[in-house]
Design brief:
- There is one protein chain.
- The chain folds into four domains: about 150 residues, 2-Layer Sandwich (Beta-Lactamase); about 90 residues, 2-Layer Sandwich (Beta-Lactamase), CATH 3.30.450.20; about 70 residues; about 150 residues, 2-Layer Sandwich (Heat Shock Protein 90).
- The protein is built from twelve helices and 18 strands.
- It is about 40% helix and about 25% strand.
- The protein is an alpha+beta fold.
- It is elongated, with a radius of gyration of 33 Å.
Length: about 475
Amino acid sequence: MTNTDLYDNYGFSLDELEHLKRLRLSWNLFADLSFADLIMFIPSLNEKDKYVVAGQVRPSTAQTLYIQDLVGVAIDKSKIPLVEQTYATGEMSKGLSVIEDTNESVMETVIPVKKDSRIIAVIDQIRIADFRRHQGQLEKAYSDLATAIANMITEGTFPYKDTIFFIENNPRVGDGVIIYDAKCSVTFASPNAVSILHRTGIHISAIGHTIAELDLSETTVQKSFEAKVPIVEESERSKDLIILTESYPLFQQNDIIGGFMLVRDVSELRKKDRLLLTKDAAIREVHHRVKNNLQTISSLLRLQTRRVKDAEAKNALSEAERRIRSIAIVHEMLSRDSSNQVPFNEIVDLLVKFARDTLSDDINVTFEVDVAVGVVIAEVATPLAVAISELIQNALEHAFVKVQNNSPQISVRLEYIDQNLIVTVSDNGDGLPENFFIENSNSLGLLLVRDLIKNQLNGELQLSSQNGTRAQISVPVNLIKPISTFD
């Protein structure tokens, strides 16, 4: 059961659902600052005496108290009285309790999640209750931040409005943390933040100085205060030093009370990004050059075809030129994108266009194309494109020789059926000769298609006569690895 499933039919408005979604995408930071496990509860629909766990996150700053995944678990109200109390009063509840499975004494803070003054869920913040341990400066600073965020959750102002923290860029307090007041004066800087400041050439004590005096962007902080949303900025301090800052405003009853900044050295990350971009550009360039070389070979074969007088040799050169052009189409697509995946519907459209271009003016064959296979990897696209091109050309050359057909038609269809990619090229022409077997055929094109499909794609080719000729290719889906099954 997914978290989204848990929210279905609970009577949440679209705004409330969006609020819960943004909260679940951003509460990792809250868990880290709290040194606590966070468990989100909503009332059970089917069991009125229970609450259902609708979300769970573990801290990266402390050992988790819950190894097991609790999402979807229904818990009796009697076992979580503070959750019941918060739902009843709409206020935060605090107290000591014991985890049944481990007999661990924990401190619970239950926070109402509000949207437009309505409680839509509660968060149970659970951490080890160790009264013997003295809280250090870093722990106190983080706990104070967590308290401020908890108050914002209660007021409905956290998560920040119109802001979603995407999972791939989810902030954690392992980054450097700088806390400042409403006047941008620094009140705390974590050891990681101090180390990053040292790398930028700032060696003075951060506490008591303004964000601007630490050579950080005070303008960005002011923008976050004004918009009341986080602002992200990346600055290149030198060729080898790139700093990413994320400024978060803190407010109470709509009044700014300060903020905090996550500071991260992303130099190595950006260096890898640049290397990847360089590699991607090189891959695209290789495909572009291969495509150009194939087109050059295609042009040379076309010129040679015009000079050859022997009909059989002329035909062989024309077929070779067409096959090379089919491969060039795939490299043309790959030169646009370095992902090693191509939109196969575009390739089929180009193959059909080339086939139309080879027809003489007195031949009027219509094409019906139905492609729903999305994106396929290059290793599959190349042999598949050559195979489809061969089948189309074979139909053009042999399907409409004996029987006069006033509406000659060739159909190309690609679809997924029962874990297989099915490619069907059919016509309404003469059909196959009697006692036809592909093994005994002299058609180089059909033999090429059979070998490409069997040896490179582990697929099968079947030929049959059904009001014409029907060629069907079947390739296992696990070899196709489409990005999306349908466009």
